[in-house]
Amino acid sequence: MKHVRLSSSYKKGRNAMTKTKLLFLAAALCGTSMLFAEGEISKGDFPPPPNGMPEIGGMAPHDITKQFDAVVKVESGTKTLKNETIESDEENKNAIFAQNDGKVTASGITIRTKKNGSRGLYAAFGGTIEAKKVDVETLGEHCAAFATDMGEGTVTVDGGKAVTKGNGSPVIYSTGNISVKNLTGSAENSEIAVIEGKNSVTIEKSSITGGSGLDGEVSAGIMLYQSMSGDANEGTAFFTSKNSKLTNAAKGPFFYVTNTNAVVNLEKTELLGNSDILILASGNNSKRGWGRTGANGGQLEFNLFSQDAKGDIITDKISSVKINLGKKSSLTGTINAKKEGKVDIFIEKGAKLEITGDSYFNKFADADDSYKNIKSNGFTIFYNVNLEENSYLQGRKIILPEGGKLAPTSYDFADAEKESAPKGKAPDNGRAPEKHDGQPQKMKLTKISGTLNVVSEKAMLIDDDNKATILKVMEEKAMGGDRNPPKGGRAPGGQPPMGEGGFGGGMQPPSGMGVNGNPPAMNKNGGKEPPKPVTMADLKKLKNKKVEIQGIQEKDGTFTVFTITEKK
Fold first, then answer.
1. Which of 59, 243, 367, 410 would disulfide-bridge 349, Cβ 3.0–4.6 Å?
2. What are the φ/ψ torsions at residue 284 (nearest 5 degrees)?
3. CA 15, CA 175: separation in Å to the nearest integer?
4. What are phi and psi of 181, to 5 degrees?
5. Closest among 567, 331, 289 to 451, alpha carbons compared
């Protein structure tokens, strides 16, 4: 029996089962089995492929592990459920799962799952679930009531209740797009919601309680982050709450942002809890593979509309927060007290700011030039005197109501600006920076060869020793900075554009980049045209072929493709 040998450098994502998803994916793609200390998973454990779907190694591309097993499973077409009770008492046995073109519509359903890895409503690979009047309870670990996963999915819920009791089991876990309305929910040992990567959560007219974190993580009410597991595309995470009540049961921040760009929109939402911290935007220690230490900060845009919010805002030197305080909104707290991160604020007319300690801003803008909308409590608001956008203040010190001051500071915010991930660009991919003297440097390339397998938008190379390597491509995608996700709830974005960080650290792509080793085209003057990057579409054309790939071996175990050539 053949087995897959996998690199120990793979990191599992926070929404993973007890085994790394990438390991299962490798075995599924090459049609072999894997050995673990607890036992063996062989290719015979996987169900046959859906009708009309191609097989890879005798296995369905998406039915790669029991993680995608379910009591009700829909892979194509639409299934309707009404007034049914669905129970699961097995490990990794979800209640309802939709994938591919599959869609589930449900009404009046009751769901009970008892073991680990058994979610309530679960969609992946483009699947859709629409549910009304639900009653969901999960008891195990990694058992979100509503979840989406690899390849994205959509879950929409209107009415009902949801309770999770296990560690790592938020009410909502999104690597796709999840919307809930008229819901009462609670997570006894996990967050209200977690968003991974370029995905979204929308909550309306609901009351949800939660707040916790896995061992070694920040305990928070809501977490927005980017793992490097490959489950979610890199980009901007969107969290929106309207006309709702959210209660943070954690001792940590209400919102925790790390290794990602994020937008939080709040409107007429009551924020409750015992923590004094509203926002923590910071890097992490990378022990879980969430970016590279020192370059995995959180970049947050925080928008309030007819909204009251209380609590301190904390950033580190590689993170930033942009606050838009809209009409009929108020913000109370100490902001950036340690002067580490870059915090911008814009206060519209009809909005109020109250500070409870000396606060430091990079950009400060108030539509009320009388500053009567600021309650200072005797403290000082410092603004960056070196920033051109603050030149209207002319470096003045202004006395605020209640004895506080608006005062200039020469504090240099450049470190935060330089080291944080730029707005609209994907977080650092874990590649170690190369030293150079200000001149563009060519990157050192390596070659790997083997059989190319592609599933949906995921690609992997299996070498002659059955070692699996996850592949990445350098596709050019435009990033957006809009406050709201486009229709469908998806956030804009993707990989950084070429020449704007797409090759990391201002480095130049290697010459000769392209498909089948083709050199760059020559222009009329005899010069080389800019090389065209290898795309996922190029990889799909060579699926199941023997290929040689040239590129960069990343620190997280993945491989970035620059050239690919079919081996005859």
1. 367
2. -140, 170
3. 9
4. -145, 145
5. 567
